[in-house]
Amino acid sequence: MPNKTFAKLKATDDYVALIVRPGLINKHLTSDQLIVLANLEKFGAVKYSAGHSFIVTVHCSHIEQAMEKLTEVNLYVASQTPSALFKCCDFCDGDLLDGLPLAKDLLEQVEQMPLKNRVRIGFNACTQACYNAVQDDLALIFHNGKVDIYGGAIPMGRRASSGHLLLKKVPENQVIDLVKNILGKYNASSIDKFSAFVHKNKTYFDQLQ
């Protein structure tokens, strides 16, 4: 078992965990990226997470240097503040790219949108729904220029369940505004857990149809 974890390091000093990925849809790592991760592990910890990201633990005094090293080799580092966080599938390793423009626009306009709690959003390029998108807070399943939106998943615990189909066949050009609307409604609510927000606002989602 590892003797260096985020919890153990955090208990001894001022450490922070960075969410790091090879890219928006890319899941392959280069030798340069692996070297950077290995070097950072010497002074902290690197763990692969259930969210298909690396959790890189670094000392707070080294955040800027770590960010510079990670971005130099084109690794993507997510915001440390509570925000919308996207997890895309691999688009069948680039064979299904019809949904890529929408995924990029979502990353630019919605990812890292400040929220009271982190909301994980899964994006799939086809109806195979790989990478467990329906286990995320929101799931966007792209198919023939339209998107099915699932929400309210409980990913862990004895009450674990997949998200429910909230909206079906949303036109591609309406998806971004709709997601912003949902996140804004959640952020303004008094409910902390996104799954509880979905379950308690069925009328709101019915009105979005």
From TrEMBL:
Keywords: Iron, Iron-sulfur, Metal-binding. InterPro entries: NO2/SO3_Rdtase_4Fe4S_sf. It comes from the Bacteria. SUPFAM superfamilies: Nitrite and sulphite reductase 4Fe-4S domain-like. The keyword Iron-sulfur applies. One of its GO terms (molecular function) is metal ion binding. This is Dissimilatory sulfite reductase, alpha and beta subunits. It comes from Solibacillus silvestris (strain StLB046). The lineage of its organism: Bacteria, Bacillati, Bacillota, Bacilli, Bacillales.
